[in-house]
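Protocol step 4 of 5: obtain the predicted structure for the target chain.
Materials: sequence only (see below). No template structures provided, no constraints applied. The aim of this step is simply to have a reference model before the mutagenesis design in step 5. Sequence pasted as it appears in the construct record:
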Amino acid sequence: MSDPSAMRRQTGSSALHQAGIALGQLGRGRAALTLLMLALAVVLGATSWEIPLMRDAERPIFDLRQSLTAPVVKGDDRIVMVVYTDETLEKTGQRSPVDRGILARALKRIDAMGAKAIGIDILIDQKQPQDEELIAAFHEMKTPVALAHASSQVAMDKIEPWQQAFLEEFHARIGNPKVTLASIILNEDQDGKVRVWGEKNGASRIRLPNAMVPEARDFEDYAGSIAFRFPEYADRPIFTELPIDTFADDALFSIPELQAGLEAQVRGRYVFIGGHINDLDVFKTPMTLVQKGDTWGVDVLGQIVAQQLDGKMLTPIPGISYWFAALLIVVFAAYTGFSNTSTSLLAGLAVAQLAAVLGTPFLLANAGFDTYGLPAFGWLTAWFLAFAVSETAARALGTEQRKFAQSALGKYLPRDVAAQIMKAPASLSLTGEKREIFVLFTDLEGFTKLSHAIAPEMVASLLNRYLESLSDVVLRHGGTIDKFVGDAVVAFWGAPLARPDDGERAVRAALAMFQAGEDFRHSVPEGVPAIGKTRVGLHFGEAIVGNFGGEGRIQYTALGDSMNTASRLESANKQTHSSILVSREAAERSGLDIFRPLGRVVLRGRATPIDIMEPVPDLNDT
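Step 4 output (C-alpha cells):
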C-alpha cells in the first residue's frame, strides 16, 4: 500500500527538481535576475508599510478596510458629549480660551447628577478671570475627572513649555485627588489621520480614555487601531450632544421637568466636555473616507472609551506572518506565471489568487484582527511582480526551448512532424512511453573492410555522403532518425507522432534506401575498391520511445525487442541472399500488396520462428 506522505514528498521533490532544471535552462544571468526579482517581491510584500511611497498607498487601503468592516450602531447611550459650540462662543464673546465660568457651573451640575466619569478635552493652559471659580468647582468634585494635559515634549506644535507649566500649577492648586491630569494627544500619521491609539510616551501622562475607564486594565498599554463605528443615520450622531451653556443656564434648571430630563441623560454615564467648533480640534480618521466631514477630537476620544467599554481589543498580527504570507503569494504567483496551461485555466488561477490576496485583509479585519500595518498593497504588488517576472522568464525559457527544438528536431524528424511538435510540445513525450512502431535497420556490405583500405579522409567523406543520402530518404518519407551506428542507419515510424500510413511510408523508405545505396556504390570515385549493396530490415512491434540519458545530454530513441528483431532481419539478408527483409507484422500493416513470402526463420537471439517477406515492387503496379 502506497504511503501518501511519501508520494507528496516525491511530488514536491520532483517539482523542485523541475524548477531547478528550468532555471538552469534560462542561463545563469537570467536565472539569477529572476530569483533576485522574486526575492524583491517577497521583501516588498512584507515591508510595504516601511517604504514611503508604498506606505502612502497602504493607508487609504487600510481606511477603506476599516470603513467597510466598521459596525453600524444606532447610538451609544453610555457616553454623553457636553460641548462648546459656535453659538456658545457667540454668546460668551470668548473663543480661545473658552469661557471657564460656564465650565465651572456645568461641572457642579453634572457632578450633582451622578455622572460615571468626566473627561475634559480642554487645555487650561493660560490664566483667565474665571480661574478661581473653576478651581473651586474642581475642588468640590465627587465624580472622577480626567483633566486634559499635553506635554510640550510630545506635542511641541500644540503647547509651549510655559503653558504646560501653568496647566500643571493650576492642577496642583485644585487639591482634589478625584481630578487627575490625562493626555489628550491623538497620534496622527504623516497624512494627518488618526488611526491608532499610539504608544504611551514616557513624557506624557496617562491617556485620557484610560483615566476615564481605569477598570479596563488590558487597555493600559494598548497601541493598536481605534475601533471606529458608524452611526446608523448620518444626521444622528452616535453620542448624545448637549450644549454646555445648557448646564450653566439657571433659568432652565428652575424647571423641574427639564432638570429631570437632563439628569436622566447624565446619570451613570461617561461625560465628555469639549468643543464642537468649526475648524477647531478636528481630525481626519478612516471614517473620513465614507462619512462627510472630519471628526472632532472629543468624539475620537469618545470612540476610544467605547472601545474599552466593549472590550474590543483588536488582535495583533505577528510581523513574521506578513513574511510568510508574502512568500506564499510569490510562490503561487510564480507557479502561475511559469505554468504551461490553457489560458482559461491560467485566468482562473490568477483570479482565485487575486481574490484571496484582496479578500484576506478584509476577512481578518472583520474577524477582529488589527490590520494596521498589514501589507495589503504590498501583497498585491508582490503578486503582480512575481507573476510578471515568472511569466517573462517562462517566455524566455519557451523561446530557448523552441530554438533548441527547432535545431534538434530538424536533424532527426521530417519538417511537418517537427512543426506539429513545435505547435503542441506535449505531443513529444519527455520521458518514455510504450508505442507500436515500424523499425528499420540498414547496413552497407563491405564498408568496414573498405575503411581499412583507403585514407581516413576518404572514409569520412564517403560515409558522410552515404549517410546523408539515406537520412534524406528517411525524412522524406516521414520517418524519425534514431541513430547512426558506423555505416548503419536506425530509423522508425510511429513516434513521436503516428500517421495512419506509417507502414506504407516505412516500406517505401526501405525500397528507396536500397536504391540510394545502389546509386552511391556506383558513383564512388575511381580507385576506391568496390562497395557492396545496402541491406535493410523492417519490423513492426512495441518499443519504449522517449528521451533517455540526462536532462543535460539526452537522446530521443526507441528501446525494446522490436529494435533487435529489425536488426536481426537486416542480418538475415545474408542467408536469404536478399536485400530487404520485412516481417509479416510490418508487411500486413503496410497496406501494400508487393511482398513475396520467403518462409519462416529463427532469428539469432529468438526462440520463436518469424515469417519473413521481401518487397518486390514489380509484383504489383502499385
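Step 4 remarks: Residues 376-412 form the longest helix (37 residues). The first strand starts at residue 72 and ends at 73.
Proceed to step 5.
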